[in-house]
Amino acid sequence: MSLIVVGSMAFDQIETPFGKSDRIVGGAATYIAWSASHFVTPVRQVSVVGGDFPQSELDALAARGVDLDGVQVMKDRKSFFWSGRYHMDMNSRDTLETQLNVLGDFNPVVPDSYQDSEFLMLGNLAPAVQLSVIRQLRRKPKLTVLDTMNFWMESAMPDLEKVLREVDVLLINDSEARQLSAQYSLVRAAREILKMGPRYLVIKKGEHGALLFHENHVFVAPALPLEDVFDPTGAGDTFAGGFIGFIARSRNTSFENMKSAVIVGSAMASFCVEKFGTLRMQELDRAEVDSRIRQFIDLVNFDIDLLG
Amino acid sequence: MSLIVVGSMAFDQIETPFGKSDRIVGGAATYIAWSASHFVTPVRQVSVVGGDFPQSELDALAARGVDLDGVQVMKDRKSFFWSGRYHMDMNSRDTLETQLNVLGDFNPVVPDSYQDSEFLMLGNLAPAVQLSVIRQLRRKPKLTVLDTMNFWMESAMPDLEKVLREVDVLLINDSEARQLSAQYSLVRAAREILKMGPRYLVIKKGEHGALLFHENHVFVAPALPLEDVFDPTGAGDTFAGGFIGFIARSRNTSFENMKSAVIVGSAMASFCVEKFGTLRMQELDRAEVDSRIRQFIDLVNFDIDLLG
To answer: Domain range holding B228?
Structure first.
């Protein structure tokens, strides 16, 4: 039950058709850690922040059981910053501004104390950085999960191809799957992507749920139909955290268990969008998580009599 | 186990990014009848065709157990004709041409022999025509299901509002649900629509599956991830046919059974898109139907242990 999480810890500023946030704490590894910590601790974080990153946020993560030994703090520099504006569908978005800051030359160092970890979650980051973490581990994890995005397909495809060959599970969204495979049909896209390295592929479709592909098998997970989506930022990372957290806790990497992990990821993501930033993730308790997972069971449960 | 189906029987001409059909037989009631006849017979058809409608097609339906007493044949006139072109997503489409022909002044007559029917499926047609059929029935059906589309929301909303007050279940797609309710969130849209008359609402989302709403309950049905969608025309009608056919056969109008009916409708629709027109529906046998429904069970089935 030991999990390494790699990714950004950063600031976001978000506009939606319904509101606008201040500069708030975000970043892939932040969301993943909050989400995974509901299932497994310690979460061993590998990231980099500037001197502007609030100590209170680091303390809150530490209190949740997140090990910050692998988080570099560059006192005289600034944290990664992203701002974006969501469209009406709350799924597509435009980037308004990106300041790489400390992430521009991030050289991750995996602490010795992390070396016995069984599970590795590579959050969205430059593929070269993800690869560096894989290479630093002396023992191959039981399961390595990768998140990435279209930006890296366009700017660092050779590195991304190398990382893909080293991972077990790839998590991407539908438009990224289409871009990576050059196939419109997601079934065809999955077949192509499963040739690139990963044995499992999760395609996230936002409000339309998620698909899990493995060999010739496919599993469809619903999204919870929500009255309001307040802020989708971090939903994919929160999904990833629930997914790997559940697997790390159960230490079961079978396809059957991965289906459950997709449901757990979807349940965690459904919380994330209810408030701006990590707010909802921070206040969440175990009873709410269990009750939401039960809602997902009810959502898809049916009992059909095949007619004679 | 008696079902009345009302709707068009017509010609379509279809273009997709992958091919183009000749002028082929289509129409809402044609697809509904083919699909429903796998579950219940007789299917009692109410429609109108011109002298150009192939006798062989009528014979094929009759051989499937479709009662054509309520189908008016206007020998000297032409059948309804629609042609359209699908976009790359195979979900949105442009109408290229519509010739109302016999449908322009269709005055449906429900034969006396249909009067004992327990179930009524109102396929997409002018709301005034749908209302006329409802008014002709001397006994209220156990369940009345309505399909409609955005065209009638724009051109015949007062009539549509009247029909909505008379039906139990409304089947529409996601963009139509948004238009009818003036709500973007489908959960909010469902709440508004359930105030307009129907006690059940099915929102069809094409490749993203379907949602069933009733009071405060929601059920999510997956779509089968397909390698290729050849022709989506009639998929919604085929869904409707499987849905009402399954309910009519089981004579069970509970919410629990309606969930199964949504799965059956989704399974039938997944066949429809595999070939142009009704071809796939005509060659389908019972074993294939059962096996496809089993695929849907596997698609969403998971067994989760809530962690202590």
So the answer is: 3-300
